[in-house]
Structures are given as C-alpha cells and as structure tokens.
Amino acid sequence: MKYTIAVTQQCNLGCSYCYISRNREVMSLETADKIIEFMFHHTPEDETIEIGFFGGEPMLEFELIKAISSRIRSHRGYNPDKVNFFIVSNGTIFSDAIADELLRLQLPFGISCDGPPHIQDTSRVFRDGRGSSTVVEKNIRYALRSFPFLPVNAVYTPNTLQHLPEVIDYFYALGVRVIYLNPDISARWTKEHAQMLPVLYRAVGEKYIDYYKQETPCYISMIDSKVTVIMRGGYQPLEKCRMGKGEFAFAPSGNVYPCERLIGSDDGVTHCLGNINSSNLTQVKCSHDASQIANATCPSCELNQYCMNWCGCTNYFATGDYNAPGAFLCASEKASIGVALEVINTLGNEGIPFSDHLAGTPLMSIIGESVLKG
Predict the structure, then answer these.
(1) What is the pLDDT of residues 317-336, one digit of tens each?
(2) What is the rounded CA–CA span in Å between residue 69 and residue 54?
(3) Residue 17 carries which DSSP code?
(4) Please, which residues bridge with residue 51 across strands?
C-alpha cells in the first residue's frame, strides 16, 4: 500500500512542468492523525506500507514531517519491518543538521534534478527566474556523504530528451549511483520524439553495460526495472497501478486523491475521492482498473505483460482516460524493454546472473558491489 502525504503545496521553485498548483495551505497535525488512522485501517495485514512525504517542497515543513513520522511510529499498529518512509525534495534545502535528523529518524531521502546546469535551469528555476543548478548540485554532493545511495530523479521534456545520455554521464560523475529517468507526463510528445527513443535509450544502455564491466554498476530505472520484470516473467499484480485502491495521496487540506500527480490545484472535485475529515470516508475507490486497458492494441501485444500501460495518471495526462495509454508511452515502453533485453543478453554472456533482479531487488546489486569494495 502506497500513501503520499503532501505536507504543503508551498514551494520555493517555479518548475515549468509542475503538476501541483502552489497555495499557502500546510497540513495540520489533526489532519495528519486522521490520515495515519486511515493508513493503518486500510492496509491488509500481509502488505507493507510505503509512506512518501511530498509537496510543494516538503523540506519547507521538515519539522512537521518529523512530527508526523513520530506519530506514525507511536501508533499501535506500527511495525518497523512493514512501514517504509521516503521524502522527495527539490534539493534546494539541505544541511548537516537535516542529514543528522534524517539518519536519526531513518527517513530515506531523494532529490529531483534534471541534469547538468544547462538542462536543470531550463525548467527547474527559483520563483524569481534564477536557475537552481548551482544549489542543487552542491546539495547532491553534500547529501551523498550521508546517503551514498541517494536516489536522484530526472525529468526529461521534449526540449531535453536528446540529452539523456549526457544526463547519465553528469550524475555518474557526481557519484550518483541510483538514477530515475521519467518523462514529463504533461508534455506534448510527438511522433518525432517517439522515433528518437530507441537510439537514445540504447545509448543509455551502453553506458549501463560499461559501468557493469568496470565493476562500478549504476541503477538506472528504465533499464533495471525492465530487467527485473523480464526476469520475473512480467509485472506482478501488486506492482501495477492500484491508485484509489492500493494507493492514495493526501493534500494539505485533507482531500484524498488516487495519486500524488493528480492533486493538481486541490479543488476537491477533479480526481478527488473525498476528504479525510469526512465521517463517511470509508470505502474510497477510483474508476481505474489496471487490468482493463481501453484500446484494442495492448491486450494482443506480445510485450503487454512487461509494459506499464496500466499507469493511470500517465494515461490520464496523455489521453484524458485513466485506462487509455498514449502513443509516447507505448514507444517508450517498447524501447526500454528492447534495451533491457540487450543488457540481459550482453551481460549474461559476461556471466552476470541477475539474481537480484530475479528476486525483485535490483538495487542490491549496486549496494553489494559497494560493500564488497569497502
């Protein structure tokens, strides 16, 4: 079960592609308490709880995050082996004191950064228009001292798509070993962009292979996630989108949404499933069903079981329908699956068994290599 708590919709950046509208509201502890009760009540006993702190920029309300995490840990239903936390930050706010608190409270931390300065400053700027790259790069270097497996999430847009291999080089040179690449799902992707993907993804795959051969492996989401899925014979039911059933996002107001990407302006209407402060919020569900894809192509496609055509929010931004994937997602999935197969074949011939991927824990191959190197 995945729960996202948007502690604030305030942000110190003005990113051009942000899907969360800025307002002044900050979540109250009273609302947080009701969310905590909802989480523990709605999670089946055999499932883990993943709790993400989100925004706006969540680090603007770091004290509130600490208070909420403390209340979660003191809840009668809390089990440290079945509750995982995560904070997604824009990387502009970090310090030794924050690092110490994150480590003390065991709150994993990740940074969103789109790449080197000429890419980062294209979209991710401060509200006065200044680029954020200098501050964010400094904080990535800083954070890696305390979090050697710091995940960095890079969003690529139609204007920066061609720079994907350069983005990988940039993060790798900084010492980042966990890289997530995600398209701007609200962008206007064209057929020309889709046609670029196989070459660009293959270039990323070649870098991935080189890192492995140099015994300095790097986790790259578009490759490792697909290697895992291929090794395991397809996506498992709990790995697919369960928004509004196994995934909920809470705005600072207490409004409940099926996914954090759908909070938007938090108007309480669009995508909204109800409010946590309402006494009749018991069985909330959205209309998305990951097993019901609304087109004739996907069910007959030989790659269907390895494809993320079930991602409701991505589909909605592309087509206006939770269950109808867009053409760019189709092209991206085909390209990433193809590259993953090339990686499996190439590195398989080198004797790499991908046992961690088969177990569903691809990050362990990166962590294991680093531990062995001391």
Answers:
(1) 999 999 999 999 999 999 99
(2) 13
(3) T
(4) 3, 85
